Amino acid sequence: MTLGFEGVIGQPQAIRLLTQAIRKNRIAPAYLFVGPEGIGKCLTASLFVQRLASTEDSPEQRARIKKRMEQGNHPDLLWVEPTYQHQGQLLSVSQAKAQGVQRKALPRIRIEQVREISQFLSRPPLESPRSLVVIDRADLMAEGAANGLLKTLEEPGQATIIAIASSEAALLPTIVSRCTRIPFYRLHPEALEQVLRSLGYGEIVDRPTVMALAQGSPGEAIAAFEQLQACPPEILQSLQHLPRTPRPLLELAKTIPQTLDTPTQLWLIGYLQQFYWQNHSSSQWLQPLEKARQALLSYVQPRLVWEVTLLAIARNQ
C-alpha cells in the first residue's frame, strides 16, 4: 500500500521513502523534494501533508483535510509560492496573470514570505499533530530569504517543512544539508502518455516538438502546449520560417518583445531550439538561441537580443 499516494505516477522511489517514514512514524523536520518541474513533486507534497495533518488513518478525514487545504483555510498549513512585486504587493504567478501584470523578471521567494513562515511556526498547531509548510520553487529564493529560512530550519519546532526545487544547485548547501532528500525523476514515455491522457491532454501525444520539449515531464508538456496555443500564430509562423532579408527580421525582432513578456520569450527560445533541431538537424541554429537566453536572463534589452539572434540564425540558413 502507498498510504494515499495512489494518484502519483512514475515516482516509486519517492513514494517508498515517504510511505516508510509514515509507517515508522519517523517524520523529518524538513524535506527537500528535488527533481525537474512538472513530474509530480507538488502533487506528492499535497498528498503527504494531507496524511501528516490527519490524526487518524482515515480516508474520510484525509478527504475533509484535502478539501480545506484546497480552499486555503486549513490553520496548520502554509503553502508558499514565488511572487512578483507589483505596486507594493506580492503577487503569485497566477495572481499576476489574472491581473494582467507585465512580468519582466522571474518570480522569487522573498524575505517577507520567509518572515511569514517564521511567524506561522511561532504558534503551536491547532488541529494537526504538527504545523506544515510547503515552499514551492524554493530554488527561486532570494539570498536574504535563503538566509532567513536557514535560521528557521535550525529550530523548526513542532513542524515539518517541505522545500520543492528543480535543482539543488540554486539552494544554499547548508539548507540542503538540513533536509531529508526525496528524489523525483522524469517519466518514461509510457508513463508520460498515461498521465497526459488521464488529465485530458491526449492531443499533446501527437505533437512531437511539445513531447520532446517536455522530456518526460507532464507538467512541462501541458505548459508548453498552453504556451503554444497562446502564442500569436503570425509570430510563431515567422519564427518557424524565417524571412531571408534584414528588414522583416528586424520588424519581427521588434514585435516579439512588444507582444510577449520575458518569461514567455524564454519559453519561446526553448521551443525554437527543439523545433529547429527536429526539423533542420543543425546545431548552428542552437547557439544563437542559447546566447539569447543568457542575454535575456541578464536583462539585456530584449529587442536588441532578438535582432542579433534572428540575424545570426538567418546567416546560417
Automatic annotation (TrEMBL):
* Top-rank lineage group of the source organism: Bacteria
Q: Name one Pfam family in it.
A: DNA_pol3_delta2
Q: Gene3D superfamilies under this entry?
A: P-loop containing nucleotide triphosphate hydrolases
Q: What is this protein called?
A: DNA polymerase III subunit delta
Species in which this protein is naturally found = Roseofilum acuticapitatum BLCC-M154
